[in-house]
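=== Discrete structure encoding ===
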Amino acid sequence: MAAHRPVEWVQAVVSRFDEQLPIKTGQQNTHTKVSTEHNKECLINISKYKFSLVISGLTTILKNVNNMRIFGEAAERNLYLSQLIILDTLEKCLAGQPKDTMRLDETMLVKQLLPEICHFLHTCREGNQHAAELRNSASGVLFSLSCNNFNAVFSRISTRLQELTVCSEDNVDVHDIELLQYINVDCAKLKRLLKETAFKFKALKKVAQLAVINSLEKAFWNWVENYPDEFTKLYQIPQTDMAECAEKLFDLVDGFAESTKRKAAVWPLQIILLILCPEIIQDISRDVVDENNMNKKLFLDSLRKALAGHGGSRQLTESAAIACVKLCKASTYINWEDNSVIFLLVQSMVVDLKNLLFNPSKPFSRGSQPADVDLMIDCLVSCFRISPHNNQHFKICLAQNSPSTFHYVLVNSLHRIITNSALDWWPKIDAVYCHSVELRNMFGETLHKAVQGYGAHPAVRMAPSLTFKEKVTSLKFKEKPTDLETRSYKYLLLSMVKLIHADPKLLLCNPRKQGPETQGSTAELITGLVQLVPQSHMPEIAQEAMEALLVLHQLDSIDLWNPDAPVETFWEISSQMLFYICKKLTSHQMLSSTEILKWLREILICRNKFLLKNKQADRSSCHFLFLYGVGCDVPSSGNTSQMSMDHEELLRTCTPGASVRRGKGNSSMDSTAGCSGTPPICRQAQTKLEVALYMFLWSPDTEAVLVAMSCFRHLCEEADIRCGVDEVSVHNFLPNYNTFMEFASVSNMMSTGRAALQKRVMALLRRIEHPTAGNTEAWEDTHAKWEQATKLILNYPKVKMEDGQAAESLHKTIVKRRMSHVSGGGSIDLSDTDSLQEWINMTGFLCALGGVCLQQRSNSGLATYSPPMGPVSERKGSMISVMSSEGNADTPVSKFMDRLLSLMVCNQEKVGLQIRTNVKDLVGLELSPALYPMLFNKLKNTISKFFDSQGQVLLTDTNTQFVEQTIAIMKNLLDNHTEGSSEHLGQASIETMMLNLVRYVRVLGNMVHAIQIKTKLCQLVEVMMARRDDLSFCQEMKFRNKMVEYLTDWVMGTSNQAADDDVKCLTRDLDQASMEAVVSLLAGLPLQPEEGDGVELMEAKSQLFLKYFTLFMNLLNDCSEVEDENAQTGGRKRGMSRRLASLRHCTVLAMSNLLNANVDSGLMHSIGLGYHKDLQTRATFMEVLTKILQQGTEFDTLAETVLADRFERLVELVTMMGDQGELPIAMALANVVPCSQWDELARVLVTLFDSRHLLYQLLWNMFSKEVELADSMQTLFRGNSLASKIMTFCFKVYGATYLQKLLDPLLRIVITSSDWQHVSFEVDPTRLEQSESLEENQRNLLQMTEKFFHAIISSSSEFPPQLRSVCHCLYQATCHSLLNKATVKEKKENKKSVVSQRFPQNSIGAVGSAMFLRFINPAIVSPYEAGILDKKPPPRIERGLKLMSKILQSIANHVLFTKEEHMRPFNDFVKSNFDAARRFFLDIASDCPTSDAVNHSLSFISDGNVLALHRLLWNNQEKIGQYLSSNRDHKAVGRRPFDKMATLLAYLGPPEHKPVADTHWSSLNLTSSKFEEFMTRHQVHEKEEFKALKTLSIFYQAGTSKAGNPIFYYVARRFKTGQINGDLLIYHVLLTLKPYYAKPYEIVVDLTHTGPSNRFKTDFLSKWFVVFPGFAYDNVSAVYVYNCNSWVREYTKYHERLLTGLKGSKRLIFIDCPGKLAEHIEHEQQKLPAATLALEEDLKVFHNALKLAHKDTKVSIKVGSTAVQVTSAERTKVLGQSVFLNDIYYASEIEEICLVDENQFTLTIANQGTPLTFMHQECEAIVQSIIHIRTRWELSQPDSIPQHTKIRPKDVPGTLLNIALLNLGSSDPSLRFPCVQNYITVKPLTVKLDLRCWTEEDMMFGTSTQ
């Protein structure tokens, strides 16, 4: 476009420039600034080629903007900014105007642009606060315009002069004449101007003449300052024409100056005109003056006279001073070498001029004005340039007692000298360096006075003007008028800061001063400047201070801070500055914080340049490292030492003496610096800088965020430089170096939106791994601000304007936005989007960074599960709870999470929805993975509160909202594969939370919202299963089975009942989501039914399989019916068809997964579908069959040996060894089993591991753990730990024969030999008999001990190989552990010790000590109990054996007797046998025997150890899961072993109830009854009928009561009258009770759903009271009757005579809920049937119902998932006690339910003649609930229950092939295609099984003739 249609293209660019002006777009941000700047650059470049088009367009824009009507302060500011942008663009375009501009363009410029520019110059007066800037900008445009278009401008001026010659006195417009002040003037142009004015001057009116006089003077200075060479040349080669014009005008003006007033007005111009005439000046300097020049000489004489104060008029004196200053200033533009006579003229006046202007006692002033500072500055600068070494006037101005005006003049003069040095001969500032000290003192005092009075002076605006008073009074200050002095100090301070900016060396110079003094003065200077940066009431000073500090940080400036020790000084001072600024930034005390941050970035760049420069020179020293504090013991906490950073404190910490050693070349701090607990200042500075940068990341200002991110690069660069010098890792300085570099790289994303940028920031924050003082403090500070902001938001608008000061402190919205961090204001305005956005950003920041702060708090990586390897008292503080990641409730992170969860249901009127949405998204998508465990636990705890103590759902809108939010969060969290999420997801189980979510959502009903929540929950379950490998499940199979039960309840729930099409679509979506979730849950899931009533496990599994399979078949049929209906009615929407197809596919997948994982219990029920009469059903089954074959289903589970195989795999899994020799499952089991079961566990583990030849590995793991936890060698194996029990068991099992062979002969000699018959061994004098001799007894004891000891140490060859393994393993484990500990100690001590000589002795001592303590001595002390002797030895022998064991133990322990005085005589014997004992121990422990090649045969079903293992694993699988997920070895081991274990346990099902161990009953002589004798004689216990009865678990023992008695359970409903032989039951009960009934025991009678079919007939009932021994009845301490019902009440009435003994018995206790039972039996000890307990789950309870009968009774109706319970609200008498009755009716028993009216319904129950009638206010809800459970039951019932014989593995191929071939010829393609696939899949299977011959009969019946 630019090439083909240039005009349109240029116009488009101009139009875009116009549209993006602030007046059109509103307040500027970073993006719009960049865009505007880009547009400006573009136009400037285009103007070089299309000049007139651009200028014309800009002129039009300027016109339109000037004509705009605006209202309000913001609009006024935007207008001003727009005008400045346009004027600036115009100036730059005009400056680059091409030379070939046509004349026409020039005319156009004058016609259009010039009037607009004049408008600014003429109308922008003092009334406009932006007048000065706009006038300056407009004058710049005019200057550029006049460069190439002077004629046009001159023409306008000339025309105006002409007009002024003829106008009236009242109508004088001199504005155009004033243009002379702004135009570009060279020598030729000046001549034209002089000529023109000289020509017309006389005819002008007086006003116009004065305007010309004033303007020409300015034009002269424009020429001199812009073309100084031309002026210099004028004195080298005089120009006659210039002199003529000037002389002519001089004479005209001289004639005009008739009065004193006029003279005063024209003298400044006259001196200038005279300066333009060098020859005339030469002439009048002579003694004889030309007559024509006499008036000039007189003028000069008058000037001198007035200057000396003899003019007679103050006006003339002032005018003379001005004229003389002009003369001096002009003379400086002439080279001294030209020896111009003008210098003589200057010298003749300058002394008087100085005396006039610089008199402290009488300051120069004009009229009523206090001072003319510009005049004084011009004079001072000119005098310096004329005579730089004559500095008397400098000293006057520097004097402390001089007026502040003099100081101001001096500082500004110095600034001009530095910044304006255009001519070669002008002297440089170096000459003033000698005054540095005075200038620094002046700066210090001025700073103090200016800052001291700032409290009442919030804002200062500066503008150039003629006088100092004008500077103060012309502006709209908010100060009081009396504060003139304070204001003058502020101006002086600003000038001084500018001076430092211009030349820092001027104030840094320290001639002839020592290093520490130099550093002190530098520190004072920089500290003063740093204090000015946050001064919001002096914004211009603050900005200049920043610029000055930046200049001070340049390389050449830093070297001057302290040339003696530049690096140390740099670290000290720069770090203090950094610390102070960052502290202010983080406390949000700065308005323009983004600008300060940009400046800070530049400071960091300068710092790094300096470090890089000094890198090589300082490589030899360690000052970087030491100053930084690496290696010092610095506490890594967020509470960085908060220094009081006022002026004095800053100075004190920056100055030397305390921190830097004196003297040149020192490059390290004092040894005390930084290591005494307080971090060194540079570390504090870095911490504060990190805090500031972190906290800017949540700013709503995108620019601030990007700047902060870019600053991280410079932090990294500094670390790179430092680590290069100190040769340490960069991570020592910046632990999060890598993430910081990523922040820096992202900072280049200029075009990104605010939301995208924050998302990127949070992603990077989550990647921060290491907690540091910086990120911790940033998190905590942000959290405090977030809490404050949250309170304000929640209370808005209640507290909006309660506190006037707080509201005022926030200023306006713009100020808030620039502050960025509004939270500190005490009030919040939600109408300002930035306020809420900032809160959202803060929330995201806290979420993303919270994990690293949690890690810092805990000081340990993952929480570890405490291994209970010994009693709590013996452990060393290792008890960390499994889920300690939930954290202490008092930690900030925990508080934050709590508050965040409460905001999930925030209902704030204005922004509640926004808060809820953002919290949901941030927690779900941005939360640090390390916080997942805490989140899961807190969600779990919160949701658990939505249920009452009875488990009833507390349904409220808030709770529902929280549940919905939780579902969304969890789905986002699991869907979002955040980096590091896999590591943390598994640290807390979500099973309980997920189950509670489902339980809550189940009761929501079927409204649209409820259906949507259910659908989302199903989607969450699906996502959860997709992340299964990352999650932690404690009881996964049980959990998944329960979830399948719940979710299948929603399938086909309401989809057929819904009338509304939209609701139908929603319910179909729910069906789809439910089935997709069920598909994922069923994958590889063995069905785990609740304990059945009178049904064995496999049968219960089969029934459960059939329930689900039937439900899925019904769902498929439903899909088909709906499709048919749609086809008949002309078809529905395509969406519904797609839904049904997808649903059908999911259902088939679910059936496949169900059958695949449960072939053993499902195939025989489902195989018949292959022959079903309905082709659609048959086709579906073929599809399912094909899928399971493709999935590789194994049919081995159909074999009879499957149970044994599974037990074998269970043993393999427990004995499985990892790559590092670890035993994950075995060690987990060892760590979670309660100590009461350790004996059994020790037996199981030793037996099984030994059978696998892995005993050594078991012992190594156990002993290593024991040694690791032991405090010392003396406590090793002394406690009652599992390792000790394992060792004891090994000794007992494998050492019994050895002990018998070793000790039996020795003991028999001592007991039976005549030599030992009357010998005594008592050596304790207090226990000696009178006839005994102590010495003789000691000899006897020694003799016996020696005999035993030598026998023991001589038996090493007989020592059993298994025990050698035990000793060897113990020896190695102890050596290994001690060696590791020693190595760590050596490293700490940094010296070597004789480890090899010392530790083996200790290690072998541990072996001996344990062996004697656990093995030999117990057998010696108690030989009868050990089975070595047939009877107990006599007491004296027992005493001797006990004393001997003490001596032997001391030898083994390698210690002498010290405490027992009577044993000390044996110390010599003990000591003499140390080496012999050690040799024996080394002999039995130094080598490990080879494993026996013969495998131990284990029958995996009958072996009690394997069954015990099954029980231990089953009962502790949840704890094992928790241990494995939280253990520190989790990553190494993974979760696969646990998954395999959980699956195997699910297939095996629950273990049989194990009776409480009671080892004493066998020795009791219990009298057996005649009944028992009869049954035993007939070997009833061997009969199959009796074995089958035992499997029904009608009567069993499990657990103990609180009283410690064994508990027996009788489940009444499992006894079926007429089906079960009553005598067999009594015999079973008798055998079960027999081991216990000699002692007190208790019975729980479960009467749940007991009815006529479970009754005892009268004669049978009477038998129960006679067959047991009498004491068996007496020892029944309590009978707990659970769930008594109406039928039981009638039954007891009928048999009242028989039951008289029970009536009113205190031992009979009626229980109506598990909670009441817990009063007598601990919850974990209760073993009620699962089916009984399941009735209490997921109930909808309707209280205050009325059951109508002959006597109306109050009841509660409870509707569960499978049954309805009717519980009486009033007690009824049963057996003389008041009881609540609970009648239970299963869904299968409900025949009909009828709603009579809104308050009454009837219930018809099978086998009950009369319907039950109830009244209640919510009858409709009750009826709907009952209909639902009845419908669900019907859906899961097959039309007919198929009966199939058991299928064996070898039958499978034939059966499948038969089905395939049978259906292959079907006319239905949907049936035929799966058959082909099935055939292809089955054929390889048949080949593999080598089926050689198939007959036709085989094909028909699916059996092989082989």
About this structure: The mean pLDDT is 75.
